[in-house]
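Model it.
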Amino acid sequence: MTNYFENDARSMRERMQAGDLYIADDPQLEADSLRASSLSDQYNRLGPQNPAAAAPLLAELLGGLGEGTVIRPPIYVDYGKYITVGARTFINFNLTALDVAPITIGDDVQIGPNVQLLTPTHPLAADPRRDKLEAARPIAIGNNVWLGGGVMVLPGVSIGENTVVGAGAVVTRDLPANVIAVGNPARIVRELPNA
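Modeled.
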């Protein structure tokens, strides 16, 4: 393997959070991922039968969780601690949130079932991919956004407040506030009033 990091003393965790190339199977990152896997597995098993008992697990898993927010299990994350969810947000079943870079979800957001929030990116060149290098770009979802079932949000995307994204859309670039977007790739089909 080529030494991509010989003049960089930062940890892989620091490189990852900065959006720079890092080694995906670094031992420190694997430990963080195992922690997240254990907490999410416990939450996914306990949540449907006993939401009150499962709530502390979710609070421990995520980097921030607003008051009155509901996340229906199962939830799948890379690390969990890089996800912040605002107040009064509702997230339906089967959220996959690959939080290699930060994922910020605002207040009063509605997320349908089977939504994917994907921050990782991979080099196009074969050698760095073979060497298990990847990078990431953050995702930001504004207040009062509605993501329909099966929406996929790709790395680096920001979605403005009050925007509605139709079921099954693939969001490949930023969407402004107060619009409806649908399709693959998602395209704006209508503006919404600023209410």
